[in-house]
Design goal:
Blueprint: E1 8-11, H1 17-27, E2 35-40, H2 49-57, E3 61-65, H3 71-85, E4 92-95, H4 110-141, E5 153-157, H5 176-195, E6 202-207, H6 226-239, E7 248-250
Parallel strand pairs: 1-2, 1-4, 2-3, 4-5, 5-6, 6-7
Helix pairs in contact: 1-6, 3-4, 4-5
Length: 258
C-alpha cells in the first residue's frame, strides 16, 4: 500500500475546520513530516489558540501569518518559508483557506462575489505561484519517478457545490458566489496541471465531503465527521499519481463530474 511521506507541507487556513484537522492528524502520524507550515490570517487572535497549542507541543509545526487575499502577505509568507527551509523544497501545498457568503440569485451582490473570488480563486492562484519555486525544487531533487503528493503537489480544496453537473445541496442553500468560486477553482486546477506538468508537480482539486465544520455544517445537517473524513483524505493523497493530474475527485479519490 502507498504511504504519504512528504517531508515538508504547507496548509492554508489552518486555524480551524479541515485545515486544523489536517495539521492535527499529520503531526500524529508515525512517519510525520519534518516541517508542517500552518498558515492563518491572524496567528495572535483567539481563533488560532488551538493551533498555537498544537505548535507548542510538536516540533516542526511552524505557524505562518498569511492572508491569501493579500499579495504582500502571500509574498511575505513565501519568503518566511523559504528562509526556514534553508535550501530545501516544499513537497505539498494544500490550498484550504476559503470563505463562503450566504446568498440567493436575488440577493447576490458584486461585493460578495468579488470578496469570495479574491480568497477562493485568486488567493489559491497567488499562493501557488509564490510557492512554485519551492515545489519545483522539491520535484527536481526527488528520486521518485512520475507524480505524487510525497514528491511535489498542489491540492486545491474544492467542493461538489461547484460542480456544474451536480450542484450539491442547492435546495439547502444557493450560495451563488461560493459555488461559482469553486467552479472557477476547478478550472484553475486544470490550468495548473497543464502549466506545471513539465515540473512534474501534481495538481488536484478535491471535494472533502460535507463535513461538520464552522463553515460547512449547514445548521447541523452535515452528515460526515471532520476527523473521519480527514483521515480518509490523507489516505487518498497517498494514492494520487500522474493519472490524477488535473482531476476533480472526492475524499475517497473518486472522480467527480465538472
Amino acid at each position: 500500500m502507498a504511504t504519504l511521506v512528504p517531508q515538508r507541507i504547507l496548509v492554508t487556513g489552518s486555524n480551524r475546520g479541515i485545515g486544523l484537522e489536517l495539521v492535527k492528524q499529520l503531526v500524529g502520524k508515525s512517519n510525520r513530516p519534518e516541517w508542517i507550515f500552518a498558515t492563518c490570517r491572524d496567528p495572535e487572535g483567539k481563533g488560532a489558540q488551538v493551533l498555537k497549542n498544537l505548535a507548542a507541543k510538536h516540533q516542526g509545526v511552524v505557524i505562518i501569518p498569511l492572508d491569501v487575499s493579500d499579495p504582500s502577505s502571500v509574498k511575505a509568507a513565501a519568503a518566511q518559508v523559504t528562509e526556514q527551509l534553508k535550501g530545501a523544497g516544499l513537497n505539498l501545498l494544500i490550498n484550504n483557506a476559503g470563505i463562503a457568503k450566504l446568498s440567493t440569485m436575488q440577493t447576490e451582490t458584486p461585493e460578495n462575489m468579488s470578496e469570495v473570488y479574491q480568497t477562493n480563486v485568486i488567493g489559491s492562484m497567488m499562493v501557488s505561484q509564490a510557492f512554485l519555486p519551492l515545489l519545483r525544487k522539491a520535484s527536481q531533487e526527488s528520486p521518485q519517478k512520475g507524480m505524487s503528493c510525497s514528491k511535489a503537489a498542489i491540492l486545491n480544496i474544492s467542493s461538489e457545490a461547484g460542480s456544474i453537473s451536480k450542484l450539491l445541496g442547492w435546495d439547502l442553500g444557493q450560495c451563488v458566489c461560493y459555488r461559482c468560486s469553486k467552479a472557477a477553482l476547478n478550472m484553475l486546477t486544470r490550468c495548473m496541471s497543464l502549466g506545471f506538468a513539465e515540473d512534474e508537480i501534481l495538481c488536484v482539486a478535491l471535494h472533502p465531503g460535507w463535513v461538520q465544520t464552522d463553515m460547512g455544517n449547514g445548521a447541523g445537517l452535515a452528515p460526515m465527521t471532520l476527523d473521519g473524513n480527514v483521515e480518509i483524505i490523507l489516505n487518498t493523497l497517498s494514492r494520487l499519481s500522474e493519472k490524477d493530474n488535473g482531476a476533480f475527485v472526492d475524499w475517497e479519490g473518486n472522480v467527480l463530474p465538472w
